[in-house]
Amino acid sequence: MDCRPSPTAAAGAEAPPPTTYRIGYALSPKKVESFIQPSLLNLAKQRHIHLLPIDLHKPLSHQGPFDCLLHKLSGPDWTQQLRHFSSLHPDVPIIDPPDAVLRLHDRLSMLQVVRDLHLPEPIDESDSSSSSSCSFGIPHQVLVPDPQHLREQGLPSPLEFPVIAKPLLADGTASSHQMSLVFNHQGLKQLEEEEEEAPFVLQEFVNHGGVVFKVYVVGDYVQCVKRRSLPDILMDDDKALGRLGASHHNLLTFSQISNLAAAAPPSSSSFKNNDEQQLQEEEEEEAAQMPPVDKRSAATNGWNWSRRILVLGRTAHANEHYYYK
């Protein structure tokens, strides 16, 4: 006997209501203003997703229910709230998990994660027989416990100028974004006199065509976008040439790369003027090719321990080599 419903009965049956999802979000006011736009809310509504702001003045455990929790906050109290919430609701994904966030707040441990992925090693540019056209690497970097360390030992090996000084802690605060581009020994001396945040990291500066790629990873989904970055730097002995070096001979302190690019004053007459240089950088950014999909997948293989962002800098030589930074 055929127990299947007749076409007439099937046509008359009511479709089940769509599944709805309640996504709680905890962001700084600036992030809310930037991201929680009417267009996003409308799109979420079309997908049966409700974006619900978390009240930071109330315990997280007293709010909800949520199907997922998104946050971009830090601090001991917030971390404790996340862990308590997770113990009460172990099936609710938290993006990002507290332990993963803590690991990525340290500029040394965040790159150790990349080493653990065992990605393809850097390519020898002189080896034309190499069959691979893409590889991944990590800039050399050295932990500086305090400025006195520089005074006693100078630029640590294997670093060479130029280098970038970055706070060890990368927790999204204003101080964690304060960086310095050091061109020479005189700049290093200025750094040791001015640096207040310790410990900090000295990292190799890699010329990368003024473009970085941000790769967003959620599960098996990978999305890559281009962002403007610091322009390439050419060195003549201990003097930096180009748009940045012409006006900042020894040390350049900055917090936002986009602001730095806009604020850089005109170069000397021996170099292109400011407008021409900026136009060239914009053209280079436009021309920069996105990493191939298969290379992005290779770069993010094994990255599911945390749904975080990879930042890939593109070097200018023929065989594409990408640096995590």
UniProtKB/TrEMBL annotation:
A Gene Ontology CC term for this entry?
cytoplasm
Protein's name according to its UniProt entry: Inositol-tetrakisphosphate 1-kinase 1 isoform X2
Key words, A-Z? ATP-binding, Kinase, Magnesium, Metal-binding, Nucleotide-binding, Transferase
The UniProt entry, under InterPro entries, shows: Inositol_tetrakis-P_1-kinase, InsP(3)kin_ATP-grasp, ITPK1_N
Q: Where is the Inositol-tetrakisphosphate 1-kinase N-terminal domain?
A: 22-101
Subunit composition? Monomer.
Q: Could you say which protein family the record assigns here?
A: Belongs to the ITPK1 family.
Q: Which GO terms describe its biological process?
A: inositol trisphosphate metabolic process
Superkingdom of the source species = Eukaryota
What are the boundaries of the signal sequence?
none
Q: Name one Pfam family in it.
A: Ins134_P3_kin_N
Q: Where is this region: Disordered?
A: 265-299
Write out the catalysed reaction: 1D-myo-inositol 1,3,4-trisphosphate + ATP = 1D-myo-inositol 1,3,4,6-tetrakisphosphate + ADP + H(+); 1D-myo-inositol 3,4,6-trisphosphate + ATP = 1D-myo-inositol 1,3,4,6-tetrakisphosphate + ADP + H(+); 1D-myo-inositol 3,4,5,6-tetrakisphosphate + ATP = 1D-myo-inositol 1,3,4,5,6-pentakisphosphate + ADP + H(+); 1D-myo-inositol 1,3,4-trisphosphate + ATP = 1D-myo-inositol 1,3,4,5-tetrakisphosphate + ADP + H(+)
This chain's source organism reads Coffea arabica (Arabian coffee)
Q: Which residues form the Inositol 1,3,4-trisphosphate 5/6-kinase ATP-grasp domain?
A: 133-292
List compositional bias (Acidic residues) regions by residue number.
278-287
Cofactor dependence is on: Mg(2+)
